[in-house]
Design goal:
Number of domains: 1
Strand content: 5-15%
Order of helices and strands: HEEEHEHHEHHHEEHEHEHEEEEEE
Distance between the termini: 40 Å
Radius of gyration: 22 Å
Helix content: 25-40%
CATH topology: TIM Barrel
Length: 451
C-alpha cells in the first residue's frame, strides 16, 4: 500500500517467515477433504462436516461427530453468517446528526464494533461446547463462514457517516492511517480505501475470534478453526493474492481462528479484465491455476498454517452469462491439478471442500485427488512447500513442490493443454540447479516428479 503506518509494517514484517521454513503445526487432518455436504457413501478421503445451530440438540451432533474418523471431526457453525453476531441491537451506531440525514436513514447503523453480539454468541458457543464436552465428544476442527464485515464495497453514505461520528473511530483512523473518508464509497484501490478496509477487518477480527474460536478453544485446546477467506497478507505480499475481481487487500491479525483458509474456487470475474491479470488470457486454464497457486503461496509465507477452500469439480458460481459460468476449468483435469498445486504450495495434506450439490462424481474426484497426493507423499504426516515464490500468470508451465519430514520431494508439473499423446520436455524444479526431464502421459495435462 505504501502508506501503511509503521506499526502495521512491523506486524507485516513479523508475518513474513521466508519460504515457509518455520510453519506452525497445522490441523492434523491427514489426506482429507472436510466436505460441506457429506458424501453419499463412505470415502476414505472425503468426510462431511457436522452442522450445528442455535436450536440444535447436542445429542445427535455429538453422535455424528464421534462417528467421523479421528482427526477429521469437524463442526460447521451453520449460523455464523446470520444476525446472531452481526445485527445485535446493542451494537447499533447512532445516526450522524447532519441535515443531510434522511428519515429513511435513521435506522440501524452497522459498524465494526460488535461487543454485544460477540458476547451473546460466545455465551451460546460456550454452552454448546460444554454440552459436547459433557458427552465426551471432542471436535478436531471448527469451520466458520461469517462472510460479514464493513467495507468500501457496500458502504452507504449514512453508514459511513455513522462510523465516522462514533467516538471509537478517531483512534482507529490514526492507528491505520486513514487520512480521509471522502470518496471511499465503492472504491478499493486507493491508499485510504485499503487502510479503511484493513482497519475494519482488524477491529472485527477480534470480535469474531472472541465470539466463536475462543470459547471452543478454552474447552478443547487442541481444536483448530478457520473462517472462509480469512488469512494474513502483509503489505508486500497482498499484491500476490488478488481476489477474483483483481482487488488487492492486505489482511492483518487477529485471525478469526488459528488457520488461514483462502478461497481457491477458480471463479473468474473482474480479474480477467484488470491490471492484476498481468495480460494473461483467463479464458485458458493455466493462467487460472497460476493465479490461485500464487495466491496460496502468498498466504503460505506466514508461519500460520493454510487449509484452502476448493470447490467441487462440477461447481459453478451460479452465473448465467454462459453455460459454464465463470469457472472455466470446471469438469476438466485442470480442477484436479488445482487441488494438487494448492496443497503442495500451502504445505497442506487436506482441503476444505465446497460441494453444495453433493454430486457423487465430484466427491469421488476429490477422493482420488487426495489419494494420489497421499500415494506420492507415502502418507507423510505433514508437507512443507519447496517454494512460495509467485508464478507469472502467462507461464507455459506450472511447477509446485513440497518435502516430507523424511526428505522426499513431491512435485507436480502442469502444462496448458491436454494432448492425446505423450509429451516429453525439461523443466527446472524448485530448488534444483539442473533441468529435469518430465513426461506428460497421454490425455493428461500434468505429471508427478518424486525424488
Amino acid at each position: 500500500m505504501g502508506t501503511m503506518p509503521r506499526r502495521l509494517r512491523t506486524i507485516a514484517a513479523l508475518l513474513v517467515a521466508g519460504p515457509a521454513v518455520c510453519r506452525a503445526a497445522g490441523p492434523g487432518l491427514g489426506y482429507t477433504a472436510l466436505a460441506w455436504t457429506p458424501p453419499a457413501g463412505p470415502l476414505p478421503h472425503v468426510v462431511g462436516v457436522v452442522r450445528y445451530q442455535s436450536n440444535s440438540d447436542p445429542d445427535p451432533v455429538a453422535a455424528a461427530l464421534m462417528a467421523r474418523p479421528a482427526g477429521a471431526r469437524a463442526l460447521l457453525r451453520w449460523e455464523s453468517n446470520d444476525n446472531h453476531v452481526w445485527h445485535h441491537p446493542g451494537d447499533q451506531l447512532a445516526a450522524a446528526a447532519t441535515p443531510a440525514t434522511r428519515p429513511a436513514d435513521a435506522g440501524f447503523r452497522q459498524g465494526p464494533w460488535i461487543p454485544s453480539g460477540a458476547a451473546a454468541e460466545a455465551a451460546f458457543e460456550d454452552r454448546f461446547a460444554a454440552a459436547l464436552q459433557h458427552r465426551r465428544a471432542t471436535p478436531d476442527f471448527l469451520v466458520l463462514d461469517t462472510e460479514m464485515g464493513v467495507g468500501t464495497w457496500d458502504l452507504t453514505p449514512p453508514q459511513l457517516a455513522a462510523v465516522v461520528a462514533d467516538p471509537r473511530w478517531p483512534p482507529v483512523a490514526r492507528r491505520f492511517g486513514v487520512r480521509s473518508t471522502a470518496g471511499l464509497l465503492g472504491t478499493f484501490d486507493t491508499p485510504d480505501a485499503r487502510a479503511f478496509n484493513l482497519a475494519m477487518q482488524v477491529v472485527e477480527g477480534g470480535y469474531f475470534r472472541a465470539a466463536f474460536f475462543d470459547p471452543w478453544h478454552r474447552r478443547f485446546p487442541d481444536l483448530h478453526c478457520s473462517d472462509f477467506g480469512d488469512g494474513l497478507l502483509d503489505d508486500r505480499r497482498a499484491p500476490q493474492a488478488p481476489d477474483d475481481n483483481g482487488i488487492v487487500q492486505p489482511m492483518s491479525p487477529p485471525l478469526h481462528g488459528d488457520t488461514q483458509s483462502p478461497c481457491c474456487y477458480a471463479w473468474v470475474h473482474g480479474i480477467a479484465h484488470s491490471p492484476a491479470a498481468q495480460g494473461a488470457d483467463f479464458r485458458k486454464p493455466l493462467p487460472v491455476l497460476c493465479w490461485l497457486t500464487t495466491a496460496v503461496r502468498a498466504y503460505a509465507r506466514s508461519p500460520v498454517p493454510v487449509l484452502p477452500w476448493v470447490a467441487a469439480k462440477s461447481w459453478t458460481d451460479g452465473s448465467t452469462a454462459d453455460p459454464g459460468g465463470s469457472v472455466g476449468i470446471r469438469d476438466t483435469p485442470f480442477q484436479d491439478e488445482l487441488v494438487w498445486h494448492v496443497c503442495l504450495s500451502a504445505g497442506s495434506t487436506g482441503v476444505l471442500f465446497f460441494n453444495p450439490d453433493g454430486h457423487p462424481a465430484d466427491d469421488a474426484a476429490m477422493d482420488a485427488d487426495l489419494a494420489a497426493l497421499q500415494q506420492r507423499s507415502v502418507g507423510a504426516p505433514s508437507l512443507r512447500p519447496i517454494t512460495t515464490e509467485p508464478v507469472p500468470y502467462g507461464s507455459a508451465v506450472l511447477v509446485s513442490g513440497a518435502t516430507t519430514p523424511a526428505g522426499r520431494r513431491v512435485c507436480r508439473v502442469t502444462v496448458g493443454s491436454v494432448e492425446p499423446m505423450a509429451r516429453q520436455f525439461t523443466v527446472t524444479l524448485p530448488g534444483d540447479a539442473r533441468p529435469t526431464t518430465v513426461q506428460i502421459p497421454p490425455a493428461a495435462c500434468g505429471a508427478w516428479v518424486v525424488q
